[in-house]
Design brief:
Elements (H helix, E strand, L loop, with lengths): L7 E3 L5 E3 L20 E4 L8 E4 L6 H5 L6 H17 L5 E4 L4 H10 L2 E4 L4 E6 L4
Antiparallel strand pairs: 1-2, 3-4, 5-7, 6-7
């Protein structure tokens, strides 16, 4: 799962510590300030400041999904997958009224691999079949 780099962590006493204040010689446990996942320290290098990476085996997937350091695109992809799945399981077409900009609506559907047919202010949702 794609997680963003952490520059702030909790130490074993629950105190905040910056990744740049940690040395590779320290053997202290560092955890994520958001999800409490164990963190792996990286020295940076090539002009990059030190940072920490989630040890994704130390917590559940559900915990990582709620972490503030989860790549926002992962959450967006998850929402799109849930919507595609929900539409795919519809026995009857889902009809609804469009309140707002029709182009914004159709662009959002396309991002979720969905299309709609109907008039400008009412539509029927259906999967495109190309995920
Ligand atoms: Zn986290």
């Amino acid at each position: 799962m794609r997680m963003m780099k952490c520059y702030l962590a909790n130490d074993s006493n629950g105190c905040f510590v910056m990744a740049k204040e940690v040395s590779s010689l320290e053997k202290c446990v560092r955890t994520c300030v958001s999800c409490h996942c164990l963190l792996v320290w990286h020295s940076g290098g090539h002009g990059e400041v030190p940072w920490c990476e989630h040890d994704q085996q130390s917590v559940s997937r559900g915990t990582l999904m709620k972490c503030a350091y989860l790549d926002p695109q992962v959450k967006a992809d998850e929402r799109h997958a849930e919507l595609r799945k929900a539409v795919g399981w519809l026995i009857t077409p889902l009809e609804f009224k469009i309140a707002g900009n029709v182009q914004v609506f159709t662009d959002a559907l396309a991002a979720c691999f969905l299309t709609a047919s109907g008039s400008e202010k009412a539509a029927t949702l259906m999967p495109t079949g190309t995920y």
